[in-house]
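As a warm-up, study this chain.
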Amino acid sequence: MIQRYSRSEMSSVWTDQSRLRGWLEVELVVCEELAKKGDVPSMSAIRLRKKANDWIRKSGGPDPIEVAREETITRHDVLAFTGVVARHLGKDAKWIHYGLTSTDVVDTAQAIQIATAGKILLREMARLQAVLVLRAREFKDLPTIGRTHGVWAEPTSFGLKFLSWSQECDRNQERLLRALEGLRTGKLSGAVGVNGHFSPALESRILRRLGLKREKVSTQVLPRDRHAELFAAFAIIGGMLERVSIEARSLARSEVGEVREGFSQGQKGSSAMPHKRNPIGFENLSGVARLLRSYAQASFENIALWHERDISHSSVERVILPDAFTLLDYALDRICRLIENLEIDHGAVKYNLELAGEKSYSGHLLLALVRKGVPREEAYRWVQEVAFTISSGVQHRAPVPKGATHKGYFAEQAIQHSEIARHLSAREIGQLCSLEYQLRHVSDIFREVSSGERKSRKSKTKKA
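Now compare it with the structure written out below.
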């Protein structure tokens, strides 16, 4: 991933040296467990560990440049690695890679990398959810006009936007956790997966030391459906990021003007137009989502490999694994900061709500008439007649007729409609055309979500 979209903690997980140190750790643990079994001399395993620790402490361990230079000769990355290890660890290094095939080391070490990087993502997801819940509570009691198809619908709570996103974030945490758990899996079962050199029991014992489970039935590689599930989770998280971003971008449009991205001192919005203040952060995240979806597609192509293994997946994963983790880490940090600093223009929210007018309560009138015994189609036609007599002027921000107001005009017209007036009193119509009635259950929604969060926290604590 390019430096622009990289954060140091995540990037450090995916450096070449980190990858090679992971390979070395797998090799050392295998030697140590084989020594317990008597297949490797105990002193050799002890000396290998000591020399390796000294090597890592002094120079970081296997040098990617040295390994790359060796690979120009071997044309094989793992054999280049073992050759370099042999030079640095001495005669005991003959036990390195004992009974293993290359992918035993590569896939198992990669699983450890994924687990390490996954913890960072889970932490950032929890951070995002906390930010969303905080802002949801902040705007719980701010009424706003809801929109469906981009057109005024019914009033809603501005806080419900954030609360809905927080619930999606919670589901995505579960998806990510499930996918990461599926990839907390390694294999040391040899060239075609038949455990020709290590028993399944020994394989399990070695992998437990590495914090992994054993793939019960492998080929030369771990099945790639596990990886595909992870990238699918990334793509869905990207969809969440884009959902939030599209809403923020839509509300930031000049014609709407309800939100603005935070703007720092000295920031510029346009090279040509000094007045501009564009939602560039959310636009950036819409682009990030496209990349995350593309990585998922590539991972799906990796599932089907020839016979017990080919390496068509290898070149793909060298790119998409570090890129996807690094990009998503960047995106989660950025959206947290964007949501934290998002400015809500209360005046614009109120203005748009009033501009939409009371016709946005038309559904309440429809149902009230049905409850009074009016056939639904007939009731619909009456309410639509009232709404359409005023939609044209209000929709285009033109003034309503003299003596009327945006706020009361729909209700006034409904009261004057001869058919509606036969079934509903002015008092009933006034009550139905009110924010209090429309938003009367918002607090219930918030309470239900809060209750669910408490139960979820208790459940997670018990599992831990």
